[in-house]
């Protein structure tokens, strides 16, 4: 283990013994708490309303402005990917 202070880019606050000179542990703890809260608010903002996402690796329904999850919109998929609707006759075959 190193006795050097943690890098500034770390989200984990440094150990109280590793505080830079002149910074009281209480101030460092308050700064760490403020940074954690800011990160939480940013994450919540990033999860705000968005359209559905359909890729080969990810399938997500949309999210409304009030944060409610929406179902996958089949009609939108047909238009987005230029495909045809699956007819009941085809479903019966399988």
TrEMBL record:
This is N/A. Residues 1-63 are annotated as: Disordered. Residues 26-36 have a biased composition (Low complexity). Residues 37-49 have a biased composition (Basic and acidic residues). It comes from Ganoderma boninense. Residues 1-12 have a biased composition (Polar residues). InterPro entries: Rossmann-like_a/b/a_fold (IPR014729).
């Amino acid at each position: 283990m190193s006795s050097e202070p943690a890098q500034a880019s770390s989200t984990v606050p440094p150990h109280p013994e590793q505080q830079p000179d002149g910074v009281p542990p209480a101030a460092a703890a308050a700064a760490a708490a403020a940074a954690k809260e800011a990160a939480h608010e940013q994450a919540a903002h990033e999860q705000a309303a968005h359209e559905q996402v359909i890729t080969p690796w990810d399938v997500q329904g949309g999210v409304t402005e009030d944060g409610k999850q929406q179902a996958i919109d089949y009609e939108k998929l047909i238009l987005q990917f230029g495909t045809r609707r699956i007819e009941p006759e085809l479903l019966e075959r399988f």
